[in-house]
Write a structure and sequence with these properties.
The protein is of the alpha/beta class and 379 residues long. The chain has helices at 16-20, 40-53, 83-93, 103-106, 126-129, 133-148, 160-172, 202-235, 240-248, 252-266, 271-286, and strands at residues 11-13, 29-34, 58-63, 97-99, 152-156, 178-182, 293-301, 315-325, 328-338, 368-370.
């Protein structure tokens, strides 16, 4: 029995000069930016990049722990550095090049005096919890885009706000690159893959599962409400006296079902509030676990600017959560879609979203892009 040979090792480069001298392939160049400690989530990004550019294209993976995006008291010093293992994983996923510069190479002369500001979107949620974080992210992403000169850049949807601010920067500042978002990859128990998961003890990991459980609860509650509204639309609006008549006959379960359908038909749609409440209930329970979950934020936001959506919202939204378990801070999110109630034409009813355990975990399937800016240079 023969075994396939191992993939060729990618070229490992450490300097901007070596990267400039790197010959381009005949196809497109894609970049996947990481801070190292690569895992299956990163591998999914690399595979998506490889699939997009094909055998004639070139995939560059950057490994750089960016000091600008760590605030006071955060885990810069203990952030894992595993370059040898990272190169192996990148090779197996299909990378051609790993660019792993030093801090002095990226920031010659020390921290830059000129930085890119994330604007209002960068002050919300993650930006409020970690002031200046997104300015540091955008500054290093802009520098790495200049250094790697890609046609396409791939980022994970787990860091939804980061993806949003990077996409907005590329559009607003006319970067000649397409930004592609790739769905979140989850472990078998639902926990979103993160380099920080390794810090969790077994009891802390059990508590941390409340993040994805809260998102699932919101998704499932929305799906249930939408199903009730669809039934109400298909059978008409059953009167409350039908529920009472069934109850008198002892048909309690049927009476309860009829009552739920009647309420769904008569009451105003309230999808956003239902989603928030379902998720919050799970997180509130998790605050009483041992060890407890300490919630930072739960927010249902417009993906265009990350402001909270009203209960009358229609369209796509992101339900985002951040919390600490022990000393480890974790984030997660799910995309939800709110549609009009059947037959109403109003813009305030609910619809279920792409589920975290279905569409959001399909490895390597890009779902959102930002087109190249109008002033994009010819390559």
């Amino acid at each position: 029995m023969t075994t396939s040979p191992p993939p060729p090792a990618p070229r490992l480069l450490h300097t901007a000069a070596a990267l400039r001298d790197l010959p381009r392939h005949t196809g497109a160049r894609a970049v996947v930016m990481t801070m190292g400690a690569l895992h299956e989530g990163h591998a999914t990004l690399v595979r998506a990049a490889r699939a997009r550019v094909g055998p004639q294209g070139q995939v560059v993976v950057t490994v750089f722990v960016n000091p600008l995006q760590f605030g006071a008291g955060e885990d810069l010093d203990r952030y894992p550095r595993t370059l040898d293992a990272d190169v192996v994983l990148a090779a197996e996923a299909g990378a051609d090049v790993v660019f792993a510069p030093s801090a002095d190479e990226v920031y010659p002369g020390g921290e830059p005096q000129i930085r890119i500001a994330a604007g209002p979107m960068g002050t919300l949620l993650e930006g409020a919890s970690r002031p200046g974080h997104f300015d540091g992210v955008l500054t290093v992403v802009a520098k790495l885009l200049h250094l790697t000169a890609p046609d396409i850049a791939f980022f994970g949807q787990k860091d939804a706000q980061q993806l949003a601010v990077i996409s907005r920067m590329a559009t607003d500042l006319n970067f000649p690159v397409e930004i592609v978002g790739v769905p979140t990859v989850r472990e078998d128990d639902g926990l979103a893959l993160s380099s920080r998961n390794r810090y969790l003890s077994a009891p802390e990991r059990r508590t941390a599962l409340a993040l994805s459980a809260a998102l699932y609860a919101a998704r499932d509650r929305l799906a249930a409400e939408e199903a009730l509204r669809a039934r109400a639309a298909s059978v008409g609006h059953p009167a409350q006296d039908r529920a009472a008549a069934l109850a008198a006959l002892g048909e309690d379960r049927a009476a309860a079902d009829a009552h739920a359908v009647a309420c769904a038909a008569a009451g105003p749609p309230h999808g956003p509030s239902v989603a928030r409440a379902a998720a919050q209930a799970v997180l509130t329970d998790a605050a009483h676990l041992d060890p407890p979950l300490h919630l930072d934020y739960l927010a249902l936001v417009d993906p265009s600017d990350f402001t909270e959506v009203p209960d009358t919202y229609e369209g796509e939204a992101i339900l985002a959560v951040a919390a600490k378990v022990g000393t480890t801070r974790l984030i997660d999110n799910i995309r939800l879609v709110f549609r009009p109630a059947p037959g109403t034409g109003t813009a305030t009813a609910v619809a279920a979203a792409s589920a975290p355990d279905t569409a959001e975990t399909t490895p390597g399937t890009p779902t959102s892009t930002t087109p190249q800016g109008p002033l994009g240079a010819h390559r």
